[in-house]
Amino acid sequence: MQEETSDDQNRVTEIKRIVQKYDVGSRYTTIPLQKASILLPLIFKEDRLHLLLTVRSMKLKTMPGDICFPGGRREPTDCDDIHAALREAKEEIGLRPEQVEIIGRLVPYISKVDRV
């Protein structure tokens, strides 16, 4: 594992400040719709900050091959939206919850997906 430099720490502090400015907390958790949650994983690689995206398998029935953030549908066993995003990220890319620091929750996006 790479050691963080003070420049990295300064960048992380600035990102946290920006995201926390828009953090909505639990304000939208009671919306009575089926929910899905995603992570926007920020990682340092080769001294540069990256946003991690995934590519959905071509074998999936819905949205095969799409480029997306790790995450997915909330299950009845998930205690909240954050737990759903962490569970899905672990299933999809092996990202363990203890490797993640949640720095904020952003305004939800409501979409209508027609199923054939």
UniProtKB/TrEMBL annotation:
<dbReference type="InterPro" id="IPR015797">
    <property type="entry name" value="NUDIX_hydrolase-like_dom_sf"/>
</dbReference>
<keyword id="KW-0479">Metal-binding</keyword>
<keyword id="KW-0464">Manganese</keyword>
<dbReference type="GO" id="GO:0009132">
    <property type="term" value="P:nucleoside diphosphate metabolic process"/>
</dbReference>
<dbReference type="InterPro" id="IPR045121">
    <property type="entry name" value="CoAse"/>
</dbReference>
<dbReference type="InterPro" id="IPR000059">
    <property type="entry name" value="NUDIX_hydrolase_NudL_CS"/>
</dbReference>
<keyword id="KW-0460">Magnesium</keyword>
<dbReference type="GO" id="GO:0030145">
    <property type="term" value="F:manganese ion binding"/>
</dbReference>
<dbReference type="InterPro" id="IPR000086">
    <property type="entry name" value="NUDIX_hydrolase_dom"/>
</dbReference>
<keyword id="KW-0378">Hydrolase</keyword>
<dbReference type="Pfam" id="PF00293">
    <property type="entry name" value="NUDIX"/>
</dbReference>
<dbReference type="GO" id="GO:0000287">
    <property type="term" value="F:magnesium ion binding"/>
</dbReference>
<protein>
    <submittedName>
        <fullName>Peroxisomal coenzyme A diphosphatase NUDT7</fullName>
    </submittedName>
</protein>
<feature type="domain" description="Nudix hydrolase">
    <location>
        <begin position="33"/>
        <end position="116"/>
    </location>
</feature>
<dbReference type="GO" id="GO:0015938">
    <property type="term" value="P:coenzyme A catabolic process"/>
</dbReference>
<dbReference type="GO" id="GO:0010945">
    <property type="term" value="F:coenzyme A diphosphatase activity"/>
</dbReference>
<comment type="similarity">
    <text>Belongs to the Nudix hydrolase family. PCD1 subfamily.</text>
</comment>
